[in-house]
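subagent[fold] <- orchestrator: predict structure for attached chain, return tokens only, no commentary.
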Amino acid sequence: MSDVIKLETPNEDVFSDILNVLCEQALNGNKKEQDFLEKHIFFEKWNTIQSKLETEGSTWYVWWMDGVRTLMQMNKKGTT
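subagent[fold] -> orchestrator:
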């Protein structure tokens, strides 16, 4: 059995979970969360975000972690 490489810090794990909840709400039709993701996290239109949320791979991972780190910065600044 091979070891799994863990790339995220514990703090990134927490914010990834938070972002996951926000994305789930947005995918379930929550317009407020869709707007938040567009304007403050991913800086893309909702249909583009939605499409990316339905994919996987290394490009997706980099995109996702950029969103996680943006959310972390917002929290650090007290803007969330």
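orchestrator: received. Logging for downstream: The helical segments are 10-27, 31-42, 46-53, 58-77. The chain has a mean pLDDT of 90.
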